[in-house]
Amino acid sequence: MLTVQSMKLGVFLLWWGWLLATESRVHWHGREGHEVAKKGSPILKRSPDITKSPLTKSEQLLRIDDHDFSMRPGFGGPAIPVGVDVQVESLDSISEVDMDFTMTLYLRHYWKDERLSFPSTNNLSMTFDGRLVKKIWVPDMFFVHSKRSFIHDTTTDNVMLRVQPDGKVLYSLRVTVTAMCNMDFSRFPLDTQTCSLEIESYAYTEDDLMLYWKKGNDSLKTDERISLSQFLIQEFHTTTKLAFYSSTGWYNRLYINFTLRRHIFFFLLQTYFPATLMVMLSWVSFWIDRRAVPARVPLGSTTVLTMSTIITGVNASMPRVSYIKAVDIYLWVSFVFVFLSVLEYAAVNYLTTVQERKERELREKLPCACALSQPRAVMLDGGGSEVEVNDLGSYTPENGEKPDRMMVQLTLASERGSPQRKSLRSSYVSMRIDTHAIDKYSRIVFPAAYIFFNVIYWSIFS
Fold this sequence. Notes:
Layout: H1 2-39, H2 58-61, E1 80-95, E2 100-112, E3 126-128, E4 141-144, E5 146-151, E6 159-163, E7 168-180, E8 192-201, E9 209-213, E10 220-222, E11 231-245, E12 249-262, H3 265-282, H4 293-316, H5 326-365, E13 377-379, E14 386-388, H6 403-414, H7 421-431, H8 435-461
Parallel strand pairs: 1-9, 1-10
Antiparallel strand pairs: 1-2, 2-7, 3-6, 4-8, 5-7, 6-7, 8-12, 11-12, 13-14
Helix pairs in contact: 3-4, 3-5, 4-5, 5-6, 5-8
């Protein structure tokens, strides 16, 4: 009886062990299949690399918490070299009034920080965004003489940090900066301007940080599509100098120099051609009769006011400099020519009025030739031809003089035997001025003088 019960107990234990073994084997295969499905096919899986392991944080890999990154690399030793290269994306604007320019560029820094070295099996670099920049040491570059600057942040901060396994670092950022440019407008608008963007370390002198162009003049790259509406970009080049501050010392300073030559065609159309046309328009008055006051006065005043408007418009778009610009010389000389044409007519009109008044006074002093009762022959101003006094109404002089002047001459001729004739004749001849000749000479002198001025002006400033 005891043997039978022992056999039953043994069979029960065997069955129970087989059942547990079967369940555990099924559970293990299901878990392994789930892990394979989760990780994917081993054929498509990349070769393992500790730099790409999802189980290792970048801060732990670079050992950021193990170092004090508030100090520069190699603190206490020689100056750390920091190479720089720049790619100019656009030259946005040039302002003559504010004397500044706006430029967008990619600024890249190169240095080596052994504290950031990390192990890697395939020598691949690690790339980070701007969040890691705040945790490590980066050069403290700033733009000298800048008015405004900012780092682009659309759609995220345009900052890139790339670290190689040996600790070499590339730090790149996209910046727009507005900086001062000292311009000389003495030859404006026939001028050429040279502007500079200056880069310098704010805190580290040359004993701690050696700033240099990484590839010399080839460190500066520009987009071939860069263009400006008023300027022609002649060249970009780089230079390096030392800047001294009395309280802090010597600093390395990098220069991005570019030369701009102004396009003259816009100013020819907007300034020079209108001014020249106004001067030529003022000469039209020399061909208008001197007695046509309503025609000549408005023409002169219109040209003067137009020249004043042109001068005001040009100066409104320029800074208030204390020296004379080339365009000022041209406009003010043109204004003087226009103003002189107005003064010329004022002189002609005044002399004509004085002459007519003196002739009128002279007629009043002479005996009236109309009182002759008998027609008799008289001499025309001492000439050889004779006319009848009664025929004066139908007489027309050959030189087209006015009838009153002819009457004076006839009267003088009729009084040949008078003792006062010589004195009256001499006074008449002395006061007679040919005002028409002033206009004749002005038609030649004014254009010749203005052409001569243009030849001198363009030979000096062009």
